[in-house]
Amino acid sequence: MRRFLSSAFLFFSIALTYAQAPTFEEVISLQSVGSPRVSPDGQHVVFTRSSTDWENNRFDTEIWLAKNGEDPLLLTHTKEGSSRSPRWSPDGRWIAFLASRDEETQILLIRANGGEAYGLTETSGGVSSFEWSPDGKQIVFAQRRKREEEKQEETYGRFGVEDEEYECNELWVIDVNPDSFYESLLPAQLEDSIYLEERKPKKIISGDFHVGGYLWSPTGAFIAYNRQPDPLPNSFFHADVYLYDVANDTSRVLVNNLSADGLLAWSPDGEQIAFRSSVDDSVSNYYQNSRQFIIGRDGNGEVEVGLDVDEDLNGFEWTAAGLTATAWQKTRRIFYQIDSETGASREIATPVENLYSYSFSKDGDRIAFSARNDQDLTEIYIANYPFAQTKQITQMGDQLANWHTGSSDVVSWESMDRETIEGVLHKPSDFDPARKYPLMVVIHGGPTGISTPQPVPAYVYPQLQWMAKGALILRPNYRGSAGYGARFRALNVRNLGVGDAWDVESGVQNLIDKGIVHSDSVAAMGWSQGGYISAFLSTNSDRFKAISVGAGISNWMTYYVNTDIHPFTRQYLQATPWSDKAVYDKTSPMTNINQAQTPTLIQHGEFDRRVPIPNAYELYQGLQDVGVDTKLIVYKGFGHGITKPKERLAAIWHNWQWFAKHLWGEEVEMPE
Question: Which CATH superfamily is domain 404-663 in?
Answer without folding.
Answer: Alpha/Beta hydrolase fold, catalytic domain (3.40.50.1820)
